[in-house]
Amino acid sequence: MSKPKIIVTRKWPSSVERQLQDLYDVQLNKTDIPMTEAELKHALQTADALLPTVTDKITADVINVANKRAKIIANFGVGYNNIDVAAAKVQGLIVTNTPHVLTDCTADIAMLLLLMSARRAAEGSRMIQNQQWPGWCPTQLVGQKVTGKTLGLIGFGRIAQAMAKKAHFGFAMNILFYAPSAPAQEIIDNLKATRCETLEELLSASDFVSLHCPGTPATHHLINEQCLKQMRPSAHLINTARGDVVDSKALIKALKGRWIAGAGLDVFENEPNIDPGFLELDNVALLPHLGSATEETRVAMGERVLQNIKAFFAGQEPGDRVS
Ligand code: DGY
Questions:
Q1: What DSSP letter does each residue of 278-317 carry, written as one string?
Q2: Is 0.90 topped by the overall pTM?
Q3: Among 23, 36, 161, 262, which one is least packed by beta carbons within 10 Å?
Q4: pLDDT of 210-228, one tens digit each?
Q5: What is the CB < 6 Å shell around ligand 1?
Q6: Residue ranges of domains in the chain
Q7: Which ligand 1 atom sits closest to the C-alpha of 297?
Q8: Which of 34-41's residues contact partners 24+ apart within 8 Å by CB, and which partners?
Q9: ipTM higher than 0.85?
Q10: Which residue from 58, 76, 78 has its CB within 8 A of the most atoms of ligand 1, so it is best to mutate?
């Protein structure tokens, strides 16, 4: 019997690429140039499984291509807003993701951005790199203390809870959260967390607001001009979730007008073409979507995809099926 044909859309950690090659007839992407819409359609027509990432837009148009061979789209990523899951369902295509393995690393980046924004670290680093550091002085780059402050989390899933642990136990921070559902009472008690009934309540009571909701039509521009006005002038906004949860234009206006003190962003609308307005600001720390970018995590993500397609080709239910 011939091996299932697999198409991997981007370059992966080589140890996982080798494992895939041992088991399947694999088409790798050695150049790492994102595939075009036409190439993605062709992939669905010629492979049994498509293994995309957050950078591949698997739209309804792509999914509805005629003469499909693929039966599974196994995403390399926990977020799957790059895939039109509803269209996949209609077409009988299974979709899987990679939960759990990137929880801590993404929460680390959220904490990093929180600290960078509070302590004006990006500004300081730019000052040195631009050879503009005049030397230490008492009023230079004075930021805000983090220890003991209030962290408001929007969304309270795995990554938010991991950040809450780091913030509460590492920095004695008070934890607020706003989410459609609450986790087990034991988790709330352990973190001494308080659930806010409204978004406004969380925004107005937090020194730091960190976003941890999925990118869906319901969360598109959840943080808009009105929300930014509800935050404290001393507050910071942290986004490691999805860029379009925040209205970029409104955020740039808020940062320029000092409605809020700063922001730390790892994700953006229309990546990698970020709004040039962000580049003109001094009170923002910008990272290029680094949440899951550690060797251990990227290997674990690849292995999670492998487990999902192995289960599928063995006639079993993939562990991380989302649709
Ligand atoms: C994800 O997994 O959703 C990240 O955004 C990329 O690792």
A1: GGG-SSEEE-SS-TT-SHHHHHHHHHHHHHHHHHHHTTS-
A2: yes
A3: 36
A4: 999 999 999 999 999 999 9
A5: 54, 77-79, 102, 291-292
A6: 5-97+295-314, 102-286
A7: 7
A8: 34/9, 34/10, 35/9, 37/61, 37/62, 40/9, 41/65
A9: yes
A10: 78
